[in-house]
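Input structure tokens:
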């Protein structure tokens, strides 16, 4: 038979263990969450200009394109997107730009800074899955940085990645 003291210790241990045994679940965000609250998407892209020679439209971004959602700084998040590789090796991709639509930055002008996320992955993403949409999970930082593809407003230190299935 258990003493009252032993029963209380066992019960208190079972209540504490689940809280310490599991890490906090990531906050699932989408691309709209990167825009600061109250700023409509229509206000981050200017009218732009048509390049008739190359048959492309070049957006003109104003100051709203670099406004970031500071509430995401330091947040543990999970978000979907597409990979634009920056550092690729035989092991896969460890540094890439996460973009909201396939081909962004390659064949079209880059999205605004508050729609680009620089990712550094702890585990390389296989180079035979570069066209697959992905979920990226990790710690997000908000800070404007200039790279070869444009200006990015966010970065993620990715602890986990998986194929995005919708």
């Amino acid at each position: 038979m258990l003493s009252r003291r032993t029963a209380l210790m066992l019960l208190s241990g079972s209540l504490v263990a689940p809280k310490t045994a599991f890490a906090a679940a990531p906050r699932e965000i989408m691309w709209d969450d990167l825009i600061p609250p109250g700023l409509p998407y229509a206000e981050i892209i200017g009218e732009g200009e048509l390049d008739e020679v190359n048959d492309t439209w070049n957006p003109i971004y104003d100051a709203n394109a670099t406004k970031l959602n500071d509430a995401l700084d330091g947040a543990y998040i999970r978000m979907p997107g597409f990979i634009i590789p920056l550092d690729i090796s035989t092991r896969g991709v460890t540094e890439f730009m996460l973009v909201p639509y396939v081909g962004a930055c390659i064949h079209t002008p880059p999205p605004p800074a508050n729609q680009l996320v620089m990712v550094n992955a702890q585990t390389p993403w296989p180079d035979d899955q570069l066209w697959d949409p992905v979920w990226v999970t990790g710690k997000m930082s908000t800070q404007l940085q200039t790279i070869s593809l444009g200006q990015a407003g966010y970065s993620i230190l990715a602890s986990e990645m998986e194929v995005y299935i919708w």
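The helical segments are 4-21. The mean pLDDT is 83.
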